[in-house]
Amino acid sequence: MKGNIMKSEKPNKVKDFFEKKKDALGLQVIGGGEGLNREIHRAVIQRPSFLLTGYAEDFADKRIQIMGKTEMRYLEKLPKKRILEVVSLLFSYNQLPAVIISKPDESDDFTRTISIMEKIADEKKVPLIMSTCSTEELFTQVTIYLDILLAPEQSIHASMVDVYGVGMLYTGAAGIGKSECALALVERGHRLVADDIVMISKRAGEVLLACGVEGAGHFLEIRGVGIVDIEKLFGIGAIRLQKRVEIEVHLELWKRGKNYERIGENPPKTQYFGVEIPKHTIPVSPGKNITAISEVIAMNHMLRVYGYNSAREFFNRTQEGQRRLEITEEYLATDRE
User: What pTM value is reported for the model?
Assistant: First the structure.
């Protein structure tokens, strides 16, 4: 059963970003300090190059703006009046989160431009931040931070296990055996990510990432036994903090007359946040080894990743065998010796 999409409860104000990354990025607020409570709306950042030339159409004003050496050198060459006009335009957007200036070269002198920017940032109450990092490093570090901060999240009732390096999400009705399956997999050397409540978030690059509820640890609820601590029982090597979701395994009671997948050339798909992943529905019945089936699903998935499709190969061999049989029969039919 899929849960509801949750709005991230992580702090997403500029001051939270500043406090979190000020040491790593060498950040210093040099203007607009009263605007540190502005919210960050987008995980994408940009350089306002076109805006600085006066072209303001389709300007993405909800993004953090990065002023690199190119932008600052361009402004420094402009007359003071023109710098005032351009910077005033940049800071005039009400939803602008912040402007960050990257590290200049030793030969650069942006004193005049920065002085103007500081004054306008204070007037508009838009944070103006200086960094000791290069533009490229700023883009990388800020993008990674915002991608995690603003990632949409969804909580589902499930178990998540790393099986042979493949992230497998186990879903199904309460009591179907998800936790028991996870326990059996851990006993066979695989790694538990989360049980009962799994948080799924979408990251850049169409990646689904799963983890447990913060602070919940790696506990399993086994009906008839109670709560067990996987980390204490099996050691640190039996757990993971997070894992990419690559396959959903849906467990359900075996239903007479239902057609379950028997070939598997193209497994059905399911999706979270628009990202599709294979979904295998496994009927549960007494004596069925779900653990072994899980390992086969994981290894078969890796074969597909490397370009090998077992079902397709089976069909190809069957067709080749049939073709060879027809050739043989035709030869024998005309053989008179």
Answer: 0.76
What is the rounded CA–CA span in Å between residue 194 and residue 303?
26
Q: Is 196 a catalytic residue?
A: yes
Q: Are 295 and 165 in contact (CB under 8 A)?
A: no
H helical segments located in 135-271:
135-149, 178-187, 230-234
- Sheet with 28-31, strands from edge to edge, namely 28-31, 128-130, 99-101, 65-67
218 is catalytic: no
Give residue-wise pLDDT tens across range 274-304: 999 999 999 998 888 999 999 999 999 999 9
Q: Tell me which of 13, 147, 196, 304 is the catalytic residue.
A: 196
Q: Is 178 a catalytic residue?
A: yes
269 catalytically annotated = no
For 40-51, the pLDDT digits (tens) are 988 889 999 999
Q: What values do phi and psi take at 270, rounded to 5? A: -130, 170
Residue 201 in tokens: 């978030």
Q: Which of 7, 81, 262, 336 is catalytic?
A: 262
Strand partners, 210: 200, 243
